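Page 47, continued from p. 46.
Same chain as before, 448 aa.
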Amino acid sequence: MRYIPHTENDIRAMLDRIGIAEVGDLFASIPEPLRLTAPLALPEALPESEMTVVMKDLARQNMSTDDCASFLGGGSYRHFTPSLVNHMILRGEFATCYTPYQPEVSQGTLQAVFEFQTFISLLTGMGIANASMYDGASALAEAVLMAHRVAGGNEVVISDAVNPEYRQVVATYLHGSDIKITSVPWQANGQSDLKAMQKKVTDDTCAVVVQSPNFFGVVEEYGGLGDFLKDRKTLLIATVAEPTSLGILKPPGERGADIVAGEGQGFGLPVSYGGPYVGFFSTHEKLLRQIPGRIVGETVDREGRRAFALTIKTREQDIRREKATSNICTNQGLCALAVTVWLSAMGKKGLRELALENVKRSDMLKKKLAGLKNFKLKFDAPTYNEFVLECPAPAEEVQDRLLQEGIIPGLPLGPYYPELANCLLLCTTELASEKDMDRLVTALALWE
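Result:
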């Protein structure tokens, strides 16, 4: 769609209609010190033909994962997506209305969302799931807010092994509230210190948050934590950033979780520079009225045929704000549809085989790296498809050198954890070939 600007006459007519003198009056509520006092230092406009050349030149500076060996993860994961997914989500049946307010014209969309909810409930071992959320980070933040509504406490205990960006989003959501965040460190093996977590729990703690696999790829054994919290008002929130791990790991609901908030990007969505992604959210059926966002329910029409409709709408758009569970007023419909198609195509057996392949390739790279003298695995706890490699030099230095050879060696952890400044987080999905692994090992061997 081309951009067609308003003419001066258009602008004048609109200003006259709303009764103001100039465009600047629209920003009268913004304090003067926060407004621009001079135009932005932008270059002059270019003709479309010249701008196209400029943009292509900029695009050529990007390193494509199709042209290099990539071991990057840290919350976004490269998995193979069958062409079936795009063919299905682009069908006209799903291009009905902006959002499924009108069930009579949105049955295809509503049914797809209902199936998405069903998949998430099965994978997480919980009674209900919502129609999706913006991403895993916002889903976790909403989980904390829900725990506060249910339990009433003003403190949340979060493991430092939870994705740092997820923790930042939670802190942003809680800014201005009375809810305090208490952090708990990880142990030498990479797992969260669950005993320290238990000691931090007080009568004012509304939730405890763990991630499995955690940010280091380490699988958490938090079943005992669920048992500890069972007779308390404190809720256990489990977050999952790499959803394919649910193909082989025990569902969080069977490990004591009260709320499961995660990221579904690994189920058929591209990495795509970080979005758009799709968060998922599930919990016990008894907490139905507290769940944020949308829920699609199954019903029958007046002729007795199976039908679907939005239900339990406790959002600001539908009820008084003070009674709303959340201001989340939409869901990632297209992304949730892609996830549903992907999971339908994979099936239970296919998802398990994919998860096992991820573990197999991760173990393969670990064994290859074990032969290097100056590099070592940082943690020895079981991992899924990511692990931390300790380097003989700052991780950024190792990264910069390998980038010149067309290898993305992983994510430097220093910006998130200063104590791990010489560590890289490496990820191997089913797309990591043995040839690429050998390239990485050969390049790292030059440090010795």
